[in-house]
Amino acid sequence: RIGDWSSDVCSSDLRFVDIKFDLNSFDVWLKLNSLGNKMSLKLPSKKYKLFEKYQDWKLKNSIQLYKQNNKFYANLLFEKQIPKLKKEGKVLGIDIGYKDLIVSSDKQVLGHELVEIYQKISRKRQGSKAFKRSLKERDNLIGKSVNRLNLKEVKELVAEDLKNVKKGVRKEKRLTKKFSNKLQRWSYSKVLNKLSQICEEEGILFTKVPPAYTSQKCSVCGEICKSNRRGKIYKCSCGNVIDADLN
Q: Which stretches does DSSP call E strand in the chain?
């Protein structure tokens, strides 16, 4: 299984691990060998679907073993040479938001279903099993949404650097306790990290720009006016009427 692992990770060097693929009904067999008493442990496993993505990568000489929710997992680690940055292609801008996770300058809208997940998390008791399951569901959905972003023929991806954005929103608006709790579950940092990883893998330049005035500036005439944005609509005196996130 390839994915995030918890803090209780124990590492095992591949010198003491023999990995076999597709021997029978199981996708993977891990044979763990001990140093002293010549004992070995054979573990059958199934490939996580993300495994197929790394078929042309080099399998590293180590694995990560960990326990989560009373189940045991093994992370196989892959690597490949970082590709050179693309010199040809288009520049794509994206807006990372609460209601729509990603809105791109070529009108891709992704992750609008995450709002429901934020609400679901806010109803759970923090630290409970249901709370942790909901966080996992959120993170999986974020990953799926980012993976759906079409970066074909893109040489540079530009996004807002949303560091401390939650503090700014709270300072600018008087938020109800209920909405503030939901906002707390909005994980833009995971989106930025995932985008950075994909861009590195694909040779795409990832640029983060200051968010100041980006929601107030007209994409047509360049006028900056705070009152032009009214909820989901941006309306400028120049006649530009557009979805606020797309603007």
A: 9-13, 17-21, 28-33, 40-45, 58-68, 71-79, 90-96, 102-104, 109-110, 154-160, 205-209, 229-230, 233-235, 241-243
**Pairwise CA distance, residues 160 & 192, whole Å:** 9
Cβ proximity of 2 and 76 under 8 Å: yes
Task: Provide the residue-wise pLDDT of the chain in tens; the chain has 247 residues.
Answer: 333 444 454 554 545 778 888 777 788 888 877 656 677 788 888 887 778 878 888 888 777 877 777 788 888 888 888 899 999 999 999 999 888 999 999 999 999 998 898 888 888 888 898 988 888 899 999 999 999 999 999 999 999 887 755 554 445 555 555 555 555 666 788 899 999 999 999 999 999 998 888 889 999 999 999 999 988 899 999 999 999 989 9
Strand order in the sheet with 40-45: 17-21, 28-33, 40-45
Residue 60 burial (CB count, 10 A): 11
**Helix 129-147 / helix 188-202 crossing angle, nearest 10 deg:** 40
Neighbours of 7 (CB within 10 A): 5
Look up tokens 């330049």; give the residue: 205
Question: Dihedral of CA 41/45/48/50: which sign?
Answer: positive
Q: Is 225 exposed, middle or buried (0-12, 13-18, 19+ CB in 10 A)?
A: middle
Q: In terms of DSSP H, where are the helices of 19-151?
A: 114-122, 129-147
Angstrom CA distances, 247 to 176, 228, 235, 236, 240, stand at 27, 11, 10, 11, 9
Of the candidates 143, 142, 136, 155, the one whose C-alpha atom is nearest the C-alpha of residue 53 is: 143
